[in-house]
Design brief:
229 residues; 9 helices; Arc Repressor Mutant, subunit A; alpha/beta; 2 domains; four-stranded antiparallel sheet
């Protein structure tokens, strides 16, 4: 799984460590030591960005926000590097659209595994052709599209997969761990808050039809299900 990775960190030893291990794994690496340079290099469409949040000037959260709000760079996966106790930044980063996070200090082996996992799940997987309809909701598996009535709703690949699993198994409860395993894969090392963040985004995008949005139910202490419409 070769590809180009943009590594953004102002600490030279950290960049060299990441670069060495990524090149060893077969990746091409470009580097940036500040947020402005990162945004410029992101225009060259790397396959993934490893983004440190503690950057001078334009910090990593702002870089993430700008990239995800730019249509030309919004689809580039971002793996954030955070300090161990920066729980708030982790949550905010995921809210802004980051795909994963890793706390410092980190294992280079885990970093490479995480990057490979993010790259796999950022690619649209092969799905069964055809459509699935439930009430006012229609999913087109071959085009990776959903419609509420006549209106098309834009979802990220992971949001689509979440809705697909829940809607095509309406009434069944999935734990957060099951959803992590099915959508993010066995090599995903994150915690279940990632599922909560994506469910929240999914509900917000379905709000144009409150009945459908409310059908994505939280089963307290267990996980989520899609209520039969």
């Amino acid at each position: 799984m070769a590809g180009k990775i943009l590594v953004v960190d102002d600490e030279i030893p950290i960049r060299e460590l990441i670069k060495f291990n990524l090149q060893k794994a077969g990746f091409n690496v470009v580097e940036a030591d500040n947020g402005l340079k990162a945004i410029q290099l992101a225009k060259e469409k790397p396959d993934l960005i490893v983004l440190d949040l503690m950057l001078p000037g334009l910090d990593g959260l702002e870089v993430c926000r700008l990239l995800k709000n730019d249509r030309s760079t919004a689809a580039i996966p971002i793996l954030m590097l955070t300090a161990r106790d920066d729980e708030f930044d982790k949550v905010v980063g995921l809210e802004l659209g980051a795909d994963d996070y890793l706390t410092k200090p980190f294992s280079p082996r885990e970093l490479v595994a995480r990057i490979k996992a993010v790259l796999r799940r950022s690619q649209k997987p092969s799905v069964t052709e055809g459509e699935f309809t439930l009430g006012n909701l229609r999913l087109n598996f071959s085009r990776y599209e959903i419609h509420l009535g006549q209106e098309k709703i834009e979802l990220t690949p992971k949001e689509f997969e979440l809705l697909k699993i829940l809607a095509t198994n309406s009434g069944r409860v999935f734990t957060r761990e099951q959803l992590l395993e099915k959508i993010w894969g066995y090599e995903y090392f994150g915690d279940t808050r990632t599922v909560d963040v994506h469910i929240r985004h999914l509900r917000a995008k379905l709000e144009q039809d409150p009945k459908v949005a409310d059908a994505v139910e939280t089963v307290r202490g267990v996980g989520y299900r899609f209520r039969e419409l």
